[in-house]
Specification:
Elements (H helix, E strand, L loop, with lengths): L1 H53 L8 H18 L2 H4 L5 H7 L7 H4 L1
Helix pairs in contact: 1-2
Length: about 110
Amino acid sequence: MTYLIIGLVISLALNTLLLWYVKKVLSKLLYTSDNLGDLYAVFRLFEEFTTSLYEMEMFYGEPILEELIEKTKLVRFEIERFEEIYGLTMDIEAFEGELTDDGTTEEEAR
């Protein structure tokens, strides 16, 4: 009987420790997810801005801007590889639907 009580106390302590650890890891994952989501949103706005800048009559065909757009697409592709992580806290389709014509979100336009 004594062994059973000792086993239950050890099990309770280990389960409590495990729950604390899981909570700590999940909070870090959600923090990272939120920050990656913000990074994705800001980068999409930057990409929209550079594309609209390149399409202006004054800068159309500028090779430096064209290269900047290509590099921006490569970086966006790398950020999109982490969509599983930032998708936890951010609805990407809803965010892209909120973009206005000038490259800002509807909340920023208000």
